[in-house]
Amino acid sequence: RRVHGVGAGVTLKQLFQFLNLEGKEITACPGVITEQTVVGAMMTGTHGQGMYQSSIADSAMEVEFIKRCGEACRVTQADADFGAFPVSVGALGFVTQVVMACRPINLWHKKQTNRTFEEFLAEGSHMVAHNDQVKAWWFPKGDVRILFLNCLPVESVQPAKGSADEVLAEALRPGEDYVWEDGEVSKAAPSMQRTLLSCMEAISRDTQRTPDADRFIHQTVARFAEEGSSIGSCDRLLCHSMPPKQMNCELAVHLDRWEEAARTLDTFFTESAEEYPVHYPVILRWAGPSQCWLSPAFGQPVCYFGFLVYVTAESTLPEKALQYLQRIQQVLQPFSPRPHWGKFFTASSHPFESLYPKWFDFWRLQSALDPEHLMLNDWFQQLTAGSLPPASTLQVPLESG
């Protein structure tokens, strides 16, 4: 493995562009939104999909930060408490740089197809186990769009283009959207077309954004009208620019219970979805266990369930949007979900001390680094009520400099 130092203000987009020129990629699957900084993505547990990896933070090998007293420190994977730092939500100090594990860049084959909900449940676990990456968009009371992403040997990609070096050079030339279309693009089944039309009608109704007035927001759904496959680098196949304004909630459940959780959600949508603004399919992504103490995937493989609602043309939330995202958290409570730190969640709905085995260890470490808790705002104080020990004498083995 190779390593690369990344400054705190570098965005994922800038990192991926630089690594492409170097013929490298990070060892984790990238997320979706590349405008966020690498450190910001790490600190909140941002992730892609794939059981062979977990989150962007799990690519971190070193973290450099400044303690609240102004002392510069560095932690590495050799430190016993290292797992607290890559996903620390800004509570341990000001991160200035991370060193990330990289590898020689790969080409990936992306294929998309549709399944009914029942077919999806019957085949989903097999798909996840037998593909490098699987991501699904489930339209409640409708079909499921499934994306498969698998690593390809460079030599197997369009041999007529020349040597392996020439193939990589062409694939990584400047132009973030450059990919090879692999085969014909076909129209989705009529049932999916009807689902998409219904979804876009809901967007227009709830946000006052018609397709003619705001084509971008409707295109996020209309793109599912076609199926096809393509080849390119992982970040170019998966990442996008900033989406239309929206509010997100994402919850991770243990891999063994994802099908049961999906059926529970299906019952909820069948019984009460008409009450809430459902603008976009539920996004499912599967990931392997994380070594980061506060990662939603810490110590266990998970399936992430993602939900979103778009804001109105006046930048306000549609009626019942908050109630919808709060209700979703209640529906999934039997599955002990862990929320994504960078998205909406209701703290009182989640017993963090029982969800995270290292929860108290993390806050003991925080107290040792920041005895007066100056790094914690009011929200943190409410979140950690009962979890924060008094000023600790814990010795923290950190390298200064």
Task: Give the fraction of residues assigned to helices.
Answer: 25-40%
Q: Mean pLDDT across all residues, rounded?
A: 87
Order of the strands making up the biggest sheet:
9-12-6-8-7-14-15-13-16
Assembly annotation: single chain
- What is the helix/strand order? EHEHEEEEHEEHEEHHEEHEHEEHEHHHE
Gyration radius, rounded: 22 Å
Tell me the span between the first and last alpha carbons.
25 Å
Indicate the proportion of strand residues: 15-25%
Number of strands: 17
Number of helices: 12
Structural class comes to: alpha+beta
Q: Sheet with the most strands?
A: 9 strands, antiparallel
Sequence stretches where pLDDT stays below 50 over 5 or more residues: none
Shape: globular
Compile the SSE list and pairings.
Blueprint lengths: L1 E6 L4 H11 L1 E3 L11 H6 L16 E7 L5 E5 L17 E11 L2 E9 L1 H14 L2 E6 L5 E9 L11 H8 L8 E2 L4 E2 L2 H18 L7 H8 L3 E2 L1 E4 L1 H5 L7 E9 L3 H15 L9 E6 L14 E9 L10 H11 L6 E2 L12 H4 L3 H11 L8 H6 L15 E2 L1
Antiparallel strand pairs: 1-5, 2-5, 3-4, 3-5, 4-17, 6-8, 6-12, 7-8, 7-14, 9-12, 10-11, 13-15, 13-16, 14-15
Helix pairs in contact: 5-6
Question: What this model shows, in words?
Answer:
The chain has 401 residues and is an alpha+beta fold. The model has no long low-confidence stretch (mean pLDDT 87). It has a nine-stranded antiparallel sheet with strand order 9-12-6-8-7-14-15-13-16. Strands 1, 2, 3, 4, 5 and 17 form a six-stranded antiparallel sheet that branches. It has twelve helices and 17 strands.
